[in-house]
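Continuing the batch. This is chain 6 of the set; chains 1 through 5 are on the previous pages. Same settings as before, nothing changed between runs. Recording input and output for traceability.
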Amino acid sequence: MSPPGRLSQRWDASHALALGALFIPSVGLLAPLGIAPLSVLVLVLALALCWREHPWRRVSRKPLALIAAIAVWSAISASWSIDPPVALRTSLQLTVQWGSGLLLMGIAAGLREDGRRRVAIALGIGVSIGLLWLLSEGLTPGLTRYFVNLGTAPADQRAALLLARMGRGQTVLALLLAPTAVALWRLGYRYWAGALVALLWLGLLAGHSLASKLGFGLACAVFLGALVRPRATVAVLVATMGAVVVGLPLLAFVPPPQQTLEASESWLPRSAHHRLTIWNFGAQRVLEKPLFGWGLEASRAIPGGEVELMLKAHNPLLRTATSDGEFLLAEQQMPLHPHNAGLQVWLELGAVGIAGLVLLLALIGLRITRLADRGDVAAAAATLGVGFVVSMVSYGAWQSWWQCAMWFAATLLATVRRAPQE
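Output for chain 6:
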């Protein structure tokens, strides 16, 4: 029998984080909604292994205060939201998620060097498995169909459902690539790090996630720029993000959907045009209540959101024949959320919420520039770029799986960065 205390000497929070790092890429590909419960499991295990170290004392005070203020404003906005009970539930959920994310980062900050190495190796293995799976799906008939339960979905819709699931996984892999590659490079596994970059590039080419491709392209540019001029690159990145977020209400002045369709039908994907329709409608609603917004979760029931616009299309790949022989393309003005996190904050929390978001981006940028190692700055800036791009073109701002994926990426960045004493 092991002597008393032996287990605590052999096991620490790094084992829990390594477990999450190993499985999160595959979960993202097979069952992305499972990222939220996986994150909860990792946090519970990590706390069980390190609670005597009081990891909550390592939580950064400024981010905690700012995020708490945003959470309070979200809860207050429930009082004028279209659906107050749903808004209050989401507010509580976000508060727990954000607090858990900060706590995970506090746990990561206290890991020893051997624990950091353990997590880095597990992350490298997990991302490698995910990328190989993604590549096999793009170059073969696919294996995911044998592992994913699609329920009663019609046969002609199953391919689209699988592509949607894989698209979420691609964004998770793009989010995790920079910290993984830098960690492996630093440990001496340079060919491994280079191979992961090449595999993701090939996987994205074979995939259908435009958000991941855009995020990966920006991440590469930001990463290279941060290696040469770290502070300037991060400053430009954060300033650009802030300007984009603040300027989103200007989308209200985009030409009407029919006009934009006629001008872009030959080259713009259907999903991208639908985004323009949604953003144009959402920005118009923002201008109706610009200061305080419509209240948390109001996007789900915003007046006029359920309306479907019937647009005349010429491209046979886009159109559907009607009974009178005319070809029309149907686009809903607001399907549950704007598919743009910044616009959703504007729409639901108004200028007050946007001010909090801009301050949060500035604080993140400032903390990134204070990292001592250029590799850590480049990895953090690239990850921030991926998260921002994907959040601005896909998913709902409050979706648990995406929130948890971003928090876990931030935790892994804090885990694999060069230890302060070095």
